[in-house]
Amino acid sequence: GEKVEQHESTLSVREGDSAVINCTYTDTASSYFPWYKQEAGKSLHFVIDIRSNVDRKQSQRLTVLLDKKAKRFSLHITATQPEDSAIYFCAARNSAGNKLTFGIGTRVLVRP
Amino acid sequence: DAGVTQTPRHEVAEKGQTIILKCEPVSGHNDLFWYRQTKIQGLELLSYFRSKSLMEDGGAFKDRFKAEMLNSSFSTLKIQPTEPKDSAVYLCASSVGGNQDTQYFGPGTRLLVL
């Protein structure tokens, strides 16, 4: 089955700098890649996604890049703010169903 | 609109007890998921329902974990008997289904088994 590896377990950035989280997946049939954010003591909430028919998607300060050949996708957060501090999870889903496979999570800490 | 609701928010059980966790998906959503979240294993899928039919019953969890969806607006996850290694946060999520993939997560139930 699908395996999703999230390469950075923690990321510490200065406020205003950019943060990049990288994920790789194994199933070439995967076609949908969402990102979720989990703030301290809270549940996961959806932040952005990308489908395999595009290689880039931007929403405000978040950009997702997808490299299908390398089976790699990444989340870029620009102009980081303290409220960006959280655990970010990447996930992948293939076209066969609605099951998501999640990465282990990356803890992002934005320092003042 | 109400999001996904889960009860109870916290549960403490003795080893060997039976516990039942409850979830109400977003109204109109056809897909419902149960996950277990731990620091070591991350998010693991326990069960997945589509239009109340069980689509996936996570292999390693089959023997003591049973999820049911009695109607489109209510699901339960029973753990019987509980073991200390079951201590985790149990998350329920729902999505519209089809090409509408975004899963909406509930607040979770934090379970501690002594």
Summarize the biggest pleated sheet of chain B.
7 strands, mixed
How much β-strand is present in the residues of chain A?
Answer: over 45%
Silhouette of chain A: globular
| Form type of chain B | globular
Please report which band the strand proportion of chain B falls in: under 5%, 5-15%, 15-25%, 25-35%, 35-45% or over 45%: over 45%
Number of helices of chain B: 0
Largest chain interface and its two residue counts? A-B, 20 and 21 residues
Helical fraction of chain A equals under 10%
How many beta-strand runs of chain B? Answer: 11
Mean pLDDT of chain A: 94
Distance between the termini of chain B: 37 Å
What is the oligomer described by this structure?
heterodimer
Largest sheet of chain A: 6 strands, mixed
Rg of chain B (CA only):
13 Å
Mean pLDDT of chain B: 91
Low-confidence stretches of chain A: none
Question: What's the order of the H and E elements of chain A?
Answer: EEEEEEEEEEE
Separation of the first and last Cα atoms of chain A: 41 Å
Rg of chain A, please? 13 Å
What count of helical segments of chain A does DSSP give? 0
Protein described:
The complex is a heterodimer of chains A (112) and B (114). Chain A is mainly β and 112 residues long. Chain A is 0% helix and 58% strand. Chain A contains no helices and eleven strands. In chain A, strand 9 (86-94) and strand 10 form a beta hairpin. The N and C termini of chain A lie far apart (41 Å). The mean pLDDT of chain A is 94. Chain B is an all-beta fold. Helix content of chain B is 0%, strand content 55%. Chain B has no helices and eleven strands. In chain B, the strands form two sheets. In chain B, strands 2, 4, 5, 6, 9, 10 and 11 form a seven-stranded mixed sheet that branches. In chain B, a hairpin with an 8-residue loop joins strand 9 (88-95) and strand 10. The radius of gyration of chain B is 13 Å and the shape is globular. The model of chain B has no long low-confidence stretch (mean pLDDT 91). Classes of the chains: A mainly beta (112), B mainly beta (114).
